[in-house]
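1st attempt posting a full record on here, be nice pls
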Amino acid sequence: MNRKRQSWLKAVLRLQGSVVPIVLPRVIGCGVFGIFVSILYHFRLPVDLPTLSSVIPSIVLGLLLVFRTNTAYDRFWEGRKLWGNINNSVRNLSRQIWVSVEEREPKDKNAKISALKLLVAFAVATKLLLRSEPIDNDLEGLISQSRYQKLKTMNNPPLEIAFWIEDYLQEQYEKNCLHIYQLNAMKELLNILVDCLGGCERILRTPMPLAYAIHLKQLLLLYCIFLPFSLVRDFGFFTGIIVVLISFALFGIEEMGVEIENPFGNDPNDLPLDAICVNIQRNVEDLITLTPYVRDWKTANVEDGSGKALS
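the predicted structure (as tokens):
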């Protein structure tokens, strides 16, 4: 129980990853303005205007803030689901390649390992693309030097890597190391990877409508400006403190939506893409250490309609 209390208190006081540093200047400005209005009221100036509280109904502002936050979280959660699909598809496709592709020569195993590393490279390249970062050393250890240099010239590196993976699968089919049903199943998983890439690009390249974002900020500012005039009669010199608390809540909710609407960055509130890519690489490396079942293709030479060997 004590640990839970300490963890709760630690979360309350934590600044890293919170919106406090971002909204603090605005909150302080609203608080100073509230103190200024309370000073004017103290000197009997006509600043007590409770009717201003109805200029922007709080329920309207609240609904706009909730819609803003929910829309941003939908983008965040959709991004997480897409990366979950990438993770699962890489696991399934790497497992099928490792188990299903026949090894007839020693170099065939090396080709399979290279194909599995291409799957890891796809995830890493997708991460770099979504963050608008250049091709870096994370990819250099996963692909050949010639391909590494070629990726630096590509506009969409993950798409090029997907082409290399499909080219490998097609080559194995033509060498009779895969039958048509296995090939189709693997291509379907590869299509899912490309679809997830497109879904992430859609989130990245579809920002919140500018007019909506501007209008919400304008309403927030007007509400916080009018707020001291409606509170000064009841709270006097405490008006500034009350305005700070209310503006902190409103600006904080609005800023949370801004923080999570693009979930692919490097901020503490973004998706842990680095950790996901590391996990994908570890899964593939573990798979490579396993010994797949070896078929006796000479005795199990069953032909399908296209003349490809089936196990």
